[in-house]
Amino acid sequence: MGFGREISIRNRVSGLFLIVTASLMVVVFVLVYVQVENDVYSHIDEELNEEAGEFVGGLQVTKDGVLFTDQAEWMERSHITVDFYPKFVQVVAAGSAPGIVRKSFNLFNDTLRYDPSLGDIAFYNSDIAGASVRQVQVPVFHGRNTDAAVWVLVAVPLEESLFVLSDLRTVLFFSLPVILLILFFVTRFIAGKSLAPLEQVIDTAEKITQENLDERIELPANRDELYRLSSTINDLLDRLQAAYTREKQFTADAAHELKTPLASLLGTLEVLIRKPRDPDRYKARIELCIDELKRMSGLIDQLLLLARYDSAAFKPDIAAFDAREAVVKVLDRVEGQARGKNIDITVRNNGQAMVQVDASMLEIMLDNIVSNAVKYSERGAPVTIALENRGESVTCSVTDAGPGISPEKVDRIFERFYRADESRNSQTSGTGLGLAIVKKLADIQHITLHLSSSEHEGTTVAFEIPAA
Amino acid sequence: MRVLIIEDEPGIANFLKEGLEEECFAVDVANNGREGLSMALSNDYDLLVVDWLLPGLSGVEVCRQFRKECPQVPVIFLTAKDTLDDVIFGLESGASDYIKKPFAFEGLLARIRVQLRTSFSGNPLLQAGGVEMNLAAHRVTCNGKDVLLTPKEFALLEYLLRNRGIVCTRSRIIEHVWDIHFDADTSVIDVYVNFLRKKLDVSGCTDLIETVRGVGYVIREK
Asked: Model ipTM?
């Protein structure tokens, strides 16, 4: 339904409120009117009934005609004049000789209407010479006859009661729209007032771009829905800002890491060709450049790897796999590096180590951790790889006796481009992405990663891998 | 002219040192911020080339602290950061100039020359007697004739010309013309001054460099 989509909450609330109130008021007004009308008629009818009873009691039907036994009743003031609560009475003969038998004085030349079709006592609205009256028609029987011999008709003026009812109708009819109109504006005002802070929220939120992501919506004093909305938006902004800052930092770091070897290459070659040099010099410089190029190429590989794993579409290929195979492969790869530093890598395991992982990812992770352990260890220091089957999971840990990482750096060690040794590229080559990749891969495969380290004693990195 | 390079990346530091030395600068290298700052404060450098991202103490911090002590010496920033905000931030922290990595060596050289020119006389031509030194063209002429000088001779003459009218002590000459690794044997200056005098004599510019006995050398303004 397209209707109403453009209407503000304020108008919608007051509109809905109005419709509901209007329906309720119509129902209430109708009930009130019907009740009052009933009251009025029942009051009159009671009076008519009483009066008719008196007249019926004051006459006798004989086979010759009607005998009036209570003449005084007919002489009461209300039956003679019309100015003080008049009551009109008329006795009508039915059957073979119809006609008016007797009528009260105050009827003068007029007569009450008589409806012979009505079988029993009946109350109805009628008129005397155009003036509204309420009248009752009571049958009086002769002996055990079932047909009425005469009818006693009593009428009272209805004019005043009808006037009261019509007045009530008018009041109800005209007051309804006025009340509704007032109500509409009042609710609109209240709704507007309570929604006004929302406008402020919208204004602030609209102004926030990536340039001023640190701005926040001012929280209202009352802890109401608006407070929750504002604080929810603020929390969202916090997360956005953090993600944006991380992204910006990552881009800046990546640019720095790529531009540095590029600058070194460019500068080295430029200086080299400024004048003729001897061949050894050329060779040394070109080798330097090749090293830089290798470093760049490694960095680009890792950046692409991260970009691939970061993409939401990427799904790891998780299957049952023996973790020992991965350890063997990684040992093969780092053997040369370890032998160069006279490092002995010990492998311990307590039997089968079947795990649920992406085999190639597990290798990348282990490769990173083990080569880090070798890289940061002193010559001849031991490195241990332990596989421990714990039923539900398999823990794979790599322990070195390297320099360790200080506690304040442990928290940041998995950040992209974060490097615990500040002397960045001086002694140990590396991109600062290795551990970030390990972390990313662990997250993708639901592997829990623990790093414990104490300075000058060594570091242990442990993966808790779901068992197959 | 003596330059300090504060750069942690050995690849960049090496070619800068090599290239600048070939351009007759005396070059020292520091590979972290703290070492760089202490070297900058304890030696008399004519110019600093500072990398922004440094282990220990950032380039910006080095620059700020150095500026408090030596407001005159030009500092050129090297950095991979390239947004406008970074440029402004770098220059506001006291850098005289700013060059983005990767950069052309010739470009850096030109910027270094501009900074030295402004911090000294403001003229790319240094003159005294019949000798004219064109720094941009790296050429020395004597009475219109070219004089071929070795890099050290060139640097020595440049230093004396830049400070003409002022007596340059041997230790100051050593500080500005030779790098930190030079063994402070000041007699080598006498040897180089002799080489210079001979080359200038041949071209007809005699008695340009005067000896101030027991102190050093001076080129007088005439």
From this structure: 0.72
